[in-house]
Design goal:
The chain has four helices and six strands; from the N terminus they run E-E-H-E-E-H-E-H-E-H. Helix content is 36%, strand content 21%. The strands form two sheets. It has a four-stranded mixed beta sheet. A two-stranded parallel ribbon has the order 5-6. The chain has two domains: 62 residues, Ubiquitin-like (UB roll) (Roll); 58 residues, 2-Layer Sandwich (Translation Initiation Factor IF3), CATH 3.30.110. It holds the Pfam family IF3_C. Belongs to the IF-3 family. This is Translation initiation factor IF-3.
Amino acid sequence: MSYGEKKEFKKDYGPRVNEYIRVPQVQLIDDKGENLGIVDTEQARKLALDAGLDLVEVGASAKPPVCRIMNFSKYVYEQNKKKRQNKGGKMKEQKEFRFTPVMDIGDTDYRIKRAHEFLTKGHQVKLTMVKKGRQSMDQARAVFSEILTNFTDYSSIET
């Protein structure tokens, strides 16, 4: 995209409703869920109006489009409710804390404290010991086992 060009964004307004459905015929499903077949759009609007409901396009890609007679505001409410439920079911994140064998005691204590905070919030915590160069493996194991003693009150420690 060159300088000065505007990128067009197509906003999704949701399904077309009532007079915004501008095709000559639609596949109609009534408010009880019964398929009424292919009907003129004007006749479908009239049926929806007589029932005190809306004509909502639910299958725009079909030929002819599939429309349903329903209460549109209730439909939108149900869709938003589903979105909220799916959003709330998000998995907890896994937090990683990296330690080194030569790390200062203050830094180690701070990371242990932060790991405890995340565990109490319900997150999973991954503790990693990073050994660089010629650092002793025995020293790294000793420091890491000392760090793990702070987490003995939690039910499972995987190694």
